[in-house]
Design goal:
Elements lengths: L3 E2 L3 E4 L4 H4 L9 H8 L7 H4 L14 H16 L3 E3 L5 E8 L2 E11 H5 L3 E2 L6 H14 L1 E2 L3 E5 L3 H10 L6 E4 L5 E7 L2 H12 L4 E5 L1 H17 L11 E8 L5 E2 L1 E5 L7 H8 L3 E6 L10 E6 L2 E7 L14 H10 L14 E5 L4 H9 L4 E4 L5 H9 L10 E2 L9 E3 L2
Parallel strand pairs: 6-11, 8-12
Antiparallel strand pairs: 1-5, 2-3, 2-21, 4-5, 4-10, 5-12, 7-21, 8-11, 9-10, 13-20, 14-18, 14-19, 15-17, 16-17, 16-19
Helix pairs in contact: 4-6, 6-9, 7-8
Protein backbone atom coordinates (compact mmCIF):
# COMPACT_ATOMS: atom_id res chain seq x y z
CA UNK A 1 0.00 0.00 0.00
CA UNK A 2 1.09 3.55 -0.71
CA UNK A 3 1.32 6.10 2.09
CA UNK A 4 -1.19 8.24 0.20
CA UNK A 5 -3.36 7.81 -2.87
CA UNK A 6 -5.82 9.84 -5.00
CA UNK A 7 -9.54 9.32 -4.51
CA UNK A 8 -12.87 10.26 -6.07
CA UNK A 9 -13.72 13.29 -3.99
CA UNK A 10 -17.23 14.48 -3.18
CA UNK A 11 -17.13 18.24 -3.77
CA UNK A 12 -19.35 21.28 -4.21
CA UNK A 13 -20.81 21.61 -7.69
CA UNK A 14 -19.28 24.42 -9.76
CA UNK A 15 -19.98 27.84 -8.21
CA UNK A 16 -21.54 26.28 -5.06
CA UNK A 17 -18.46 26.15 -2.81
CA UNK A 18 -19.21 29.43 -1.02
CA UNK A 19 -22.67 28.12 -0.04
CA UNK A 20 -21.25 24.88 1.34
CA UNK A 21 -17.85 25.52 2.96
CA UNK A 22 -18.10 25.65 6.76
CA UNK A 23 -15.83 25.85 9.80
CA UNK A 24 -14.59 22.51 11.20
CA UNK A 25 -17.22 20.70 13.23
CA UNK A 26 -15.18 20.87 16.44
CA UNK A 27 -14.57 24.62 16.64
CA UNK A 28 -18.23 25.60 17.08
CA UNK A 29 -20.73 24.74 19.77
CA UNK A 30 -24.17 23.55 18.65
CA UNK A 31 -25.60 26.98 19.46
CA UNK A 32 -22.88 28.77 17.49
CA UNK A 33 -23.36 26.42 14.53
CA UNK A 34 -27.11 27.04 14.56
CA UNK A 35 -26.48 30.78 14.22
CA UNK A 36 -23.80 30.37 11.55
CA UNK A 37 -26.05 28.14 9.41
CA UNK A 38 -29.13 30.34 9.65
CA UNK A 39 -30.35 31.21 6.16
CA UNK A 40 -27.76 28.87 4.61
CA UNK A 41 -29.59 25.68 3.61
CA UNK A 42 -26.54 24.16 1.93
CA UNK A 43 -23.98 24.94 4.64
CA UNK A 44 -21.95 21.85 5.46
CA UNK A 45 -22.83 22.46 9.09
CA UNK A 46 -26.11 20.66 8.31
CA UNK A 47 -23.95 17.53 7.86
CA UNK A 48 -21.16 18.11 10.37
CA UNK A 49 -23.41 19.56 13.12
CA UNK A 50 -26.81 18.11 12.18
CA UNK A 51 -28.26 18.70 15.64
CA UNK A 52 -28.85 22.28 14.44
CA UNK A 53 -31.81 20.92 12.47
CA UNK A 54 -33.34 19.27 15.54
CA UNK A 55 -34.93 20.87 18.60
CA UNK A 56 -32.59 22.98 20.73
CA UNK A 57 -31.09 20.92 23.51
CA UNK A 58 -30.94 17.69 21.50
CA UNK A 59 -28.05 15.52 22.64
CA UNK A 60 -25.46 15.89 19.82
CA UNK A 61 -24.60 12.21 20.26
CA UNK A 62 -28.20 10.96 19.96
CA UNK A 63 -29.02 8.48 17.16
CA UNK A 64 -31.39 10.93 15.49
CA UNK A 65 -28.50 13.37 15.02
CA UNK A 66 -26.56 10.92 12.83
CA UNK A 67 -29.77 10.05 10.98
CA UNK A 68 -30.32 13.75 10.28
CA UNK A 69 -26.79 14.00 8.86
CA UNK A 70 -27.58 11.15 6.46
CA UNK A 71 -30.85 12.83 5.45
CA UNK A 72 -29.13 16.18 4.85
CA UNK A 73 -26.34 14.60 2.81
CA UNK A 74 -28.97 12.80 0.72
CA UNK A 75 -30.66 16.13 -0.04
CA UNK A 76 -27.40 17.69 -1.17
CA UNK A 77 -26.71 14.74 -3.45
CA UNK A 78 -30.26 14.70 -4.83
CA UNK A 79 -30.10 18.41 -5.62
CA UNK A 80 -26.62 17.96 -7.10
CA UNK A 81 -25.23 20.61 -4.76
CA UNK A 82 -22.51 18.07 -4.03
CA UNK A 83 -21.08 16.01 -6.88
CA UNK A 84 -18.47 13.29 -7.03
CA UNK A 85 -15.46 13.26 -9.31
CA UNK A 86 -15.61 10.58 -11.98
CA UNK A 87 -12.04 9.39 -11.44
CA UNK A 88 -9.56 9.46 -8.55
CA UNK A 89 -7.85 12.82 -8.06
CA UNK A 90 -5.46 14.62 -5.82
CA UNK A 91 -6.31 18.20 -4.86
CA UNK A 92 -4.11 21.19 -4.10
CA UNK A 93 -5.47 23.27 -1.22
CA UNK A 94 -4.23 26.76 -0.33
CA UNK A 95 -5.04 28.62 2.87
CA UNK A 96 -4.38 32.35 3.10
CA UNK A 97 -4.71 34.30 6.34
CA UNK A 98 -3.48 37.87 6.03
CA UNK A 99 0.12 37.68 4.82
CA UNK A 100 0.40 33.97 5.69
CA UNK A 101 -0.07 31.37 2.94
CA UNK A 102 0.29 27.59 2.93
CA UNK A 103 -0.32 25.12 0.10
CA UNK A 104 -0.95 21.44 0.75
CA UNK A 105 -2.28 18.25 -0.78
CA UNK A 106 -5.70 16.69 -0.22
CA UNK A 107 -5.19 12.93 -0.36
CA UNK A 108 -6.36 9.67 1.13
CA UNK A 109 -3.79 8.61 3.74
CA UNK A 110 -3.06 5.02 4.70
CA UNK A 111 -4.76 3.65 7.82
CA UNK A 112 -2.19 0.83 8.15
CA UNK A 113 0.56 3.46 8.21
CA UNK A 114 -1.35 5.26 10.94
CA UNK A 115 -1.69 1.98 12.85
CA UNK A 116 2.07 1.34 12.67
CA UNK A 117 2.91 4.94 13.65
CA UNK A 118 4.38 6.02 10.33
CA UNK A 119 1.62 8.62 10.48
CA UNK A 120 2.53 9.91 13.91
CA UNK A 121 0.38 11.15 16.78
CA UNK A 122 1.16 13.55 19.60
CA UNK A 123 -2.10 13.61 21.58
CA UNK A 124 -4.32 11.30 23.58
CA UNK A 125 -7.91 10.96 22.39
CA UNK A 126 -11.13 10.92 24.38
CA UNK A 127 -13.31 7.81 23.94
CA UNK A 128 -16.56 9.80 23.69
CA UNK A 129 -15.20 11.96 20.88
CA UNK A 130 -13.77 8.94 19.07
CA UNK A 131 -17.12 7.16 19.36
CA UNK A 132 -18.87 10.21 17.91
CA UNK A 133 -16.63 10.22 14.83
CA UNK A 134 -17.03 6.46 14.39
CA UNK A 135 -20.82 6.82 14.39
CA UNK A 136 -20.73 9.81 12.07
CA UNK A 137 -18.42 8.15 9.52
CA UNK A 138 -20.38 4.90 9.72
CA UNK A 139 -23.72 6.63 9.22
CA UNK A 140 -22.60 8.73 6.27
CA UNK A 141 -20.29 6.05 4.85
CA UNK A 142 -17.92 8.94 4.26
CA UNK A 143 -15.16 10.90 5.97
CA UNK A 144 -16.25 14.53 5.84
CA UNK A 145 -13.74 16.11 8.23
CA UNK A 146 -10.14 16.12 6.97
CA UNK A 147 -7.20 15.30 9.23
CA UNK A 148 -4.55 18.03 9.17
CA UNK A 149 -1.13 16.45 8.52
CA UNK A 150 2.38 17.79 8.02
CA UNK A 151 5.14 16.38 5.85
CA UNK A 152 8.84 16.89 6.61
CA UNK A 153 11.07 18.91 4.28
CA UNK A 154 10.45 17.81 0.68
CA UNK A 155 11.25 20.57 -1.84
CA UNK A 156 10.14 18.37 -4.74
CA UNK A 157 6.63 18.09 -3.27
CA UNK A 158 6.55 21.84 -2.60
CA UNK A 159 7.36 22.47 -6.27
CA UNK A 160 4.74 19.99 -7.50
CA UNK A 161 2.07 21.67 -5.40
CA UNK A 162 3.06 25.10 -6.63
CA UNK A 163 2.81 23.81 -10.20
CA UNK A 164 -0.58 22.22 -9.53
CA UNK A 165 -1.98 25.46 -8.09
CA UNK A 166 -1.04 27.81 -10.92
CA UNK A 167 -4.22 27.62 -13.00
CA UNK A 168 -7.82 28.65 -12.43
CA UNK A 169 -9.04 27.13 -9.15
CA UNK A 170 -12.00 24.79 -8.93
CA UNK A 171 -13.14 26.43 -5.69
CA UNK A 172 -12.23 29.79 -4.21
CA UNK A 173 -13.96 30.84 -0.99
CA UNK A 174 -13.26 33.62 1.49
CA UNK A 175 -14.90 32.62 4.76
CA UNK A 176 -16.60 34.87 7.29
CA UNK A 177 -13.37 35.09 9.28
CA UNK A 178 -11.45 36.38 6.25
CA UNK A 179 -9.57 33.12 5.60
CA UNK A 180 -9.30 32.31 1.89
CA UNK A 181 -9.68 28.65 0.87
CA UNK A 182 -8.66 27.77 -2.68
CA UNK A 183 -8.82 24.31 -4.26
CA UNK A 184 -7.43 22.91 -7.51
CA UNK A 185 -8.27 19.43 -8.83
CA UNK A 186 -5.12 17.56 -9.92
CA UNK A 187 -5.82 15.12 -12.72
CA UNK A 188 -2.38 14.91 -14.37
CA UNK A 189 -1.16 11.29 -14.25
CA UNK A 190 2.49 12.36 -14.22
CA UNK A 191 1.97 14.59 -11.18
CA UNK A 192 0.00 11.74 -9.55
CA UNK A 193 2.91 9.38 -9.92
CA UNK A 194 5.49 11.90 -8.73
CA UNK A 195 3.47 12.88 -5.67
CA UNK A 196 2.77 9.28 -4.69
CA UNK A 197 6.43 8.31 -5.08
CA UNK A 198 7.66 11.35 -3.17
CA UNK A 199 5.38 10.61 -0.21
CA UNK A 200 6.24 6.90 -0.27
CA UNK A 201 9.89 7.94 0.21
CA UNK A 202 9.07 9.86 3.41
CA UNK A 203 9.84 8.24 6.73
CA UNK A 204 6.77 9.75 8.42
CA UNK A 205 3.83 12.14 8.33
CA UNK A 206 2.68 14.03 11.42
CA UNK A 207 -0.84 14.64 12.69
CA UNK A 208 -1.24 18.32 13.49
CA UNK A 209 -4.98 18.30 14.15
CA UNK A 210 -7.55 15.54 13.82
CA UNK A 211 -6.49 12.82 16.26
CA UNK A 212 -10.10 11.77 16.88
CA UNK A 213 -10.88 11.64 13.15
CA UNK A 214 -7.82 9.49 12.38
CA UNK A 215 -8.46 7.18 15.35
CA UNK A 216 -12.07 6.78 14.22
CA UNK A 217 -10.93 5.94 10.67
CA UNK A 218 -8.68 3.24 12.11
CA UNK A 219 -11.56 1.74 14.09
CA UNK A 220 -13.87 1.80 11.06
CA UNK A 221 -11.19 0.12 8.95
CA UNK A 222 -10.60 -2.60 11.54
CA UNK A 223 -14.31 -3.38 11.79
CA UNK A 224 -14.84 -3.50 8.04
CA UNK A 225 -11.69 -5.54 7.50
CA UNK A 226 -12.90 -8.11 10.03
CA UNK A 227 -16.31 -8.27 8.35
CA UNK A 228 -14.95 -8.59 4.81
CA UNK A 229 -13.72 -12.08 3.87
CA UNK A 230 -12.57 -10.66 0.52
CA UNK A 231 -10.45 -7.94 2.13
CA UNK A 232 -7.55 -6.99 -0.17
CA UNK A 233 -6.16 -3.80 1.37
CA UNK A 234 -7.25 -1.74 -1.62
CA UNK A 235 -10.68 -0.83 -0.22
CA UNK A 236 -11.39 2.83 0.45
CA UNK A 237 -11.91 2.16 4.17
CA UNK A 238 -8.16 1.51 4.39
CA UNK A 239 -7.55 5.25 3.85
CA UNK A 240 -8.65 8.46 5.56
CA UNK A 241 -9.27 11.98 4.33
CA UNK A 242 -6.29 14.25 4.93
CA UNK A 243 -4.81 17.59 3.95
CA UNK A 244 -1.01 17.48 4.11
CA UNK A 245 1.04 20.68 4.31
CA UNK A 246 4.81 21.20 4.37
CA UNK A 247 5.77 21.53 8.02
CA UNK A 248 7.69 24.75 7.41
CA UNK A 249 4.57 26.51 6.09
CA UNK A 250 2.29 25.59 8.98
CA UNK A 251 1.43 28.21 11.57
CA UNK A 252 1.09 27.34 15.25
CA UNK A 253 -0.14 30.16 17.44
CA UNK A 254 0.37 30.57 21.15
CA UNK A 255 -2.06 28.80 23.49
CA UNK A 256 -2.30 30.98 26.56
CA UNK A 257 -3.35 30.26 30.15
CA UNK A 258 -5.76 32.10 32.49
CA UNK A 259 -5.97 31.44 36.24
CA UNK A 260 -9.08 31.88 38.35
CA UNK A 261 -7.10 32.54 41.56
CA UNK A 262 -3.58 32.77 43.00
CA UNK A 263 -3.91 29.78 45.33
CA UNK A 264 -4.53 31.96 48.38
CA UNK A 265 -1.62 34.34 47.77
CA UNK A 266 -1.62 38.06 47.13
CA UNK A 267 0.23 39.41 44.08
CA UNK A 268 3.43 40.20 45.99
CA UNK A 269 3.71 36.71 47.47
CA UNK A 270 2.85 35.15 44.11
CA UNK A 271 5.64 37.07 42.36
CA UNK A 272 8.06 36.10 45.13
CA UNK A 273 7.26 32.41 44.63
CA UNK A 274 7.64 32.72 40.87
CA UNK A 275 11.09 34.25 41.41
CA UNK A 276 12.39 30.93 42.72
CA UNK A 277 12.54 29.50 39.18
CA UNK A 278 12.05 32.51 36.89
CA UNK A 279 13.49 35.96 36.51
CA UNK A 280 10.66 38.50 36.87
CA UNK A 281 10.69 41.95 35.27
CA UNK A 282 7.77 44.41 35.26
CA UNK A 283 6.79 45.60 31.78
CA UNK A 284 5.07 48.82 30.76
CA UNK A 285 3.68 47.10 27.64
CA UNK A 286 1.95 43.75 26.99
CA UNK A 287 4.43 40.87 26.79
CA UNK A 288 4.33 38.64 23.74
CA UNK A 289 7.20 36.18 24.25
CA UNK A 290 9.81 36.24 21.50
CA UNK A 291 11.77 33.09 22.32
CA UNK A 292 11.41 29.71 24.04
CA UNK A 293 11.63 29.90 27.81
CA UNK A 294 10.09 33.36 27.94
CA UNK A 295 6.58 34.03 29.26
CA UNK A 296 4.30 36.98 29.81
CA UNK A 297 2.37 37.32 33.06
CA UNK A 298 -0.55 39.70 33.43
CA UNK A 299 -1.83 40.54 36.89
CA UNK A 300 -4.56 43.16 37.33
CA UNK A 301 -3.22 46.31 35.71
CA UNK A 302 0.39 45.10 35.29
CA UNK A 303 2.39 42.97 32.84
CA UNK A 304 5.59 41.11 33.75
CA UNK A 305 8.19 39.34 31.64
CA UNK A 306 9.30 35.95 32.96
CA UNK A 307 12.36 33.94 31.92
CA UNK A 308 12.86 30.43 33.25
CA UNK A 309 16.25 29.48 34.65
CA UNK A 310 18.34 27.90 31.91
CA UNK A 311 19.41 25.00 34.13
CA UNK A 312 15.77 23.86 34.40
CA UNK A 313 15.42 23.23 30.64
CA UNK A 314 16.29 19.59 29.82
CA UNK A 315 18.26 19.15 26.63
CA UNK A 316 17.17 15.65 25.66
CA UNK A 317 13.53 15.36 26.71
CA UNK A 318 11.26 16.56 23.86
CA UNK A 319 8.21 16.85 26.15
CA UNK A 320 9.76 18.28 29.32
CA UNK A 321 11.57 21.02 27.40
CA UNK A 322 8.35 22.39 25.86
CA UNK A 323 7.35 25.80 27.19
CA UNK A 324 3.93 24.45 28.17
CA UNK A 325 5.68 21.76 30.24
CA UNK A 326 8.14 24.19 31.83
CA UNK A 327 5.35 26.55 32.91
CA UNK A 328 3.27 23.66 34.21
CA UNK A 329 6.09 21.88 36.04
CA UNK A 330 7.83 24.89 37.58
CA UNK A 331 4.98 27.34 38.18
CA UNK A 332 1.41 26.19 37.65
CA UNK A 333 1.75 22.94 39.63
CA UNK A 334 4.11 23.92 42.46
CA UNK A 335 2.98 27.53 42.96
CA UNK A 336 -0.69 27.48 41.99
CA UNK A 337 -1.40 23.90 43.02
CA UNK A 338 -2.89 22.86 39.67
CA UNK A 339 -1.49 19.40 38.96
CA UNK A 340 -4.10 18.26 36.41
CA UNK A 341 -4.70 21.04 33.88
CA UNK A 342 -6.99 18.76 31.87
CA UNK A 343 -9.62 18.70 34.61
CA UNK A 344 -8.91 21.50 37.08
CA UNK A 345 -11.53 24.24 36.75
CA UNK A 346 -9.11 26.87 38.10
CA UNK A 347 -7.28 27.05 34.76
CA UNK A 348 -8.60 27.97 31.32
CA UNK A 349 -6.96 28.22 27.90
CA UNK A 350 -7.17 31.01 25.35
CA UNK A 351 -6.07 30.57 21.74
CA UNK A 352 -3.58 33.11 20.47
CA UNK A 353 -5.92 34.10 17.65
CA UNK A 354 -7.75 36.17 20.30
CA UNK A 355 -4.65 38.23 21.07
CA UNK A 356 -3.21 39.63 24.30
CA UNK A 357 -6.15 42.04 24.82
CA UNK A 358 -8.33 39.00 25.55
CA UNK A 359 -5.99 38.05 28.40
CA UNK A 360 -6.19 41.56 29.83
CA UNK A 361 -9.97 41.51 29.51
CA UNK A 362 -10.27 38.21 31.36
CA UNK A 363 -8.08 39.32 34.26
CA UNK A 364 -9.55 42.82 34.47
CA UNK A 365 -13.00 41.20 34.64
CA UNK A 366 -12.21 39.19 37.74
CA UNK A 367 -9.81 36.35 37.01
CA UNK A 368 -6.47 36.70 38.75
CA UNK A 369 -3.63 35.98 36.31
CA UNK A 370 -2.90 35.21 32.69
CA UNK A 371 0.19 33.79 31.03
CA UNK A 372 1.12 34.53 27.42
CA UNK A 373 3.16 31.79 25.74
CA UNK A 374 5.74 31.45 23.00
CA UNK A 375 4.10 29.31 20.33
CA UNK A 376 5.13 25.67 20.11
CA UNK A 377 7.23 25.07 17.00
CA UNK A 378 6.49 22.37 14.42
CA UNK A 379 9.96 20.94 14.98
CA UNK A 380 9.07 20.44 18.65
CA UNK A 381 5.79 18.72 17.78
CA UNK A 382 7.60 16.41 15.36
CA UNK A 383 10.27 15.58 17.94
CA UNK A 384 7.57 14.57 20.45
CA UNK A 385 5.83 12.42 17.84
CA UNK A 386 9.13 10.82 16.76
CA UNK A 387 9.78 9.87 20.38
CA UNK A 388 6.31 8.28 20.54
CA UNK A 389 5.42 10.69 23.33
CA UNK A 390 2.37 12.86 23.97
CA UNK A 391 2.15 16.65 24.13
CA UNK A 392 0.72 18.25 27.28
CA UNK A 393 -2.89 19.48 26.94
CA UNK A 394 -3.49 22.67 24.99
CA UNK A 395 0.01 22.82 23.49
CA UNK A 396 -0.86 23.89 19.95
CA UNK A 397 -3.36 26.19 18.28
CA UNK A 398 -3.18 25.83 14.50
CA UNK A 399 -4.33 28.67 12.28
CA UNK A 400 -5.73 28.98 9.73
CA UNK A 401 -8.26 26.17 10.10
CA UNK A 402 -9.34 23.91 7.24
CA UNK A 403 -12.88 24.20 5.93
CA UNK A 404 -15.30 21.30 6.03
CA UNK A 405 -17.20 20.48 2.85
CA UNK A 406 -14.68 21.31 0.13
CA UNK A 407 -13.74 17.64 -0.35
CA UNK A 408 -15.12 14.50 1.32
CA UNK A 409 -13.95 10.89 1.04
CA UNK A 410 -16.69 8.34 0.32
CA UNK A 411 -16.14 4.79 1.59
CA UNK A 412 -17.29 2.58 -1.28
Amino acid sequence: MSLIRPFTGLRPAPSRAAEIAAPPYDVLSSAEARVRAEGKPWSFLHISKPEIDLPAGTDPYAPEVYAKAVENLGKMLAEKVLVRDAAPCYYAYRLVMGSHSQTGLVAAASVPDYDTNRIRKHEFTRPDKEDDRVRQIGALNAQTGPVLLAYPAAPQVDRLLERASEGTPDADVTADDGIRHTLWVIRDAEIFAQLTAAFDAMHALYIADGHHRSAAASRIAAARRAANPEHSGDESYNYFLSVIFPHHQMKIMDYNRVMVDLNGMDAAKFLQRIGENFSVQASAVPVKPSMPGEFGLYLPGQWHRLQIRADLIPANDPVARLDVSLLQNYLIAPVLGISDPRRDKRIDFVGGIRGLPELEKRVDSGEMAAFSMFATRMEDLMAVADADEVMPPKSTWFEPKLADGLVSHVLD
